[in-house]
Amino acid sequence: MYERQPNSHITALHPAFQFSDLKERLDYLGVSQLGDPKTDEEQERQVAHEAEQERQRELLPKVEPASSILDNALKLLIRFGIFNRGPPFIPLFSPLGTKHKWCKALFSTTDFATTIQGGISVGDYLRPVNWILSVPKHRVLIVLSPFEVNELLPMIWKSKHVHLHIYTPRVNRTMKSTEDLRFYSMPPLSASPDPLTFIRDPMLQLNLWAGQLYLKDFETYKELCQVLGLIGAESGPSIWDSDGFVKPENRLGAMKEKCQMIVSPVMFLRELFSLRRKGLAYAPTHMGKVLDVKPLEEKDFDR
What we know:
- This protein has 303 residues and is α+β, with helices and mostly antiparallel strands.
- The chain has ten helices and eight strands.
- The protein has helices at residues 20-28, 37-50, 72-80, 110-113, 146-158, 200-210, 218-228, 253-258, 266-277, 286-291, and strands spanning 9-10, 34-35, 89-91, 106-109, 131-135, 140-143, 163-166, 185-186.
- A hairpin with a 4-residue loop joins β5 and β6 (140-143).
- The longest helix is centred in the N-terminal third of the chain and has 14 residues, at 37-50.
């Protein structure tokens, strides 16, 4: 394939010896022969060829999908505004077994959390977040499954107690944020009083569960770091762990008031985003930098 050289080394015939200054320097160093660059190039090509590997995609094990169930408690909430914490309403972050203290206003239905037979789904079978039910009277947000939305949509349109919102996590910079839940609501939101005054803090954490990679603005970034107990844009704390987590005794100002985390949520969030991204890299994104302890600046956000 490649030209074979009868002699792998040449001395005075090597191009380097044709330059008097270079030859003088080589003689001073005691170098009387140099390797043939063509031979080195051929060896490098051979090594590169040997290092080639064929990538194989590992398929998920075959499982049976779960049967969707419409719980009567959800109907009571929509029709009469009756909400009781407990099944079918479960804490949003509970499927991954986290022990961190997440927002108490975030829930999902059991049907949303169950995608395969055998119980609540985790890992590669997490369902994407697209439908959020807001309940202004109880100041909670509930993530619904597509089945529940399809079955209860006529009832939701007539409800005076809830609003259904279309939501999509922002996974690339060009996408518009829908985290204010005003993109499309059913029934339409009233202008006054505003039924969504309570959602800002819950949505900070709901975005995490949904796998949102880009934050709305610099203020949102600062608030998220305060809620999670991460150093981020904070200049107050002088002591933090290697993953950017500020322990309770070292917190100051707004972080001390807002953060309920006792231990670092960084490893949990890395696992969550890895599941949401399904192996795709996200290090250059806002959340990738937050979880890699790389502070963001105002210039990192769209204006």
